[in-house]
Each structure stands twice: as structure tokens, then as C-alpha cells.
Fold ATPase component of Mn/Zn ABC-type transporter.
Amino acid sequence: MRDVSASYGSRRVLVDVTARVPRSQVTAVVGANGAGKSSLLNVIAGTLPPTSGTLRRTGSRRPAYVVQRSDVSDALPITVRGTVEMGRWAHRGPWRRLTARDHAVVADCLARLDIRDLAERQLGALSGGQRQRALVAQGLAQEAELLLLDEPGAGLDLAAQTRIEDALAQACRDGVTVLRVTHDLDVARRADHCLLLRDGRLVAEGLPEAVLTPERVRAAWGVPDLA
Ligand SMILES: Nc1ncnc2c1ncn2[C@@H]1O[C@H](COP(=O)(O)OP(=O)(O)OP(=O)(O)O)[C@@H](O)[C@H]1O
């Protein structure tokens, strides 16, 4: 993206952001609360139109977007399997009969996130970690070239986090480009590429160890000892 700016009404949330998301790698987006991380994902997903600047993407399919689990209503009457099956609508269109291949992809994604035994449970009746795994499985089921995730690991136990990390690493090996927002600097350090945002501006971009210097971390979060 080049010189991308975006606003909610009169509030500018991204200011002249020029950044790269390398293909088939994991890119971590980091920054303090309100820095513009979700806004950046929304611009790339196409749900927040930029007010200026340009975005260029290789590949033709729509990105898959895994939202924060708190964005999904408990009242939604849908099973885990149904949630993952919705991921196939990108290929099939809503309410169409799923093909044998669709069912195979859904079964594979349930297995990758280790939630086969939860398949017939209601999404709204799951714990936070179980629900997050279901949402990541839905994202993977879309077989998109670009997978966007908003804090996929936040508040999860080690087993759930590990499952998600393994599934994302596998997706990358399969050629998927992963762009994830994270508040966990250890997760960001393990990424291939890192974007650091502050007040809607890109402060630094590149290898995580080069981006996440103690000075920048201090400046971005305004606290002395996060690094
Ligand atoms: N729908 C909206 N309408 C108006 N302002 C919004 C909206 N969504 C976000 N904002 C504002 O845009 C700015 C950037 O928000 P954004 O959600 O992109 O930050 P973030 O880095 O993802 O934060 P967090 O770490 O808290 O999730 C904030 O000042 C926020 O208040």
C-alpha cells in the first residue's frame, strides 16, 4: 500500500501509510490500543475505503478475515461445523449445497484446529479459546490467498494458542499470506515481517528484531519496560 489514509467520519485513523505485506509469510501488525491496527486490516479487507492512497494486491480472491471473537454474538444460532462451512460460501455462495470437496476442506480445518469434537456444539456456548479456534478454522476454510486475523491469540490458553500458531504456520507453508494483529510482542518477534503503528502512522516496517527495538517499543506504548 502506498500513502494510504482512512477515516471514520472526521476522525483520521490511518495517515499516509506505505507498507508491504510479503507473500506467503506471516506479517505481524503491532501498536498500542487505538493505533489503527484494526483499521489497517479493514482497509485491506475492503470494508473501510481509503480516503487517499493506493492498494495493490497480487492474486484475485477476496481476503479471508478472522474477526475478534468478541465481535461474534452469543445469540447466533449456529454450530461450530456451520461456522466453518460458512467459510466455503466464498466459493459456493450462501445456502448452496456444499460439495464433497467443501465437506473435506471443512473436516480438515476442524482437525487442524483440533475442534472436531466440538463440531455439533453451538458457537455461542463455547469458551473464548474454543470459539477463537472455530473462527480461525472458518478463515482457513475460505482457502484465501490472504488471511487477515485480528488478535487471534488474545486471552487464550497455551494449547489453544499453539493450535492456532501451528495452523497459521501450516497455511503459510501452503502459500497463504498471513497478516495478523497481535498485542503479544513474542508472537510478533516470531513473525517474518512486522508493521509498527502509532497514532495511525507507520513507525517502522521490516524484520521484527529490527522493528521492535526497546526505544521504539517505549515510544509506541509510552511505558518503560515492555521490551
Ligand atoms: N467504527 C468506528 N467509528 C469511529 N471511530 C472508530 C471506529 N473504529 C475505530 N475507531 C477509532 O479509530 C482509531 C483506531 O482504532 P483501531 O480499532 O484501528 O485501533 P487498534 O490499533 O486496532 O486498537 P486496539 O488495540 O484497541 O484494538 C481509534 O481512535 C478508534 O477510536
Q: What stands out?
A: The two ends are 28 Å apart (CA to CA). Strands lie at 2-8, 11-17, 26-30, 52-54, 64-66, 146-150, 177-181, 193-198, 201-206. Residues 1-63+144-227 form a domain with the Rossmann fold fold (CATH 3.40.50.300). The pocket of adenosine-5'-triphosphate is lined by residues 8, 11, 13, 31, 33-39 (CB under 6 Å).
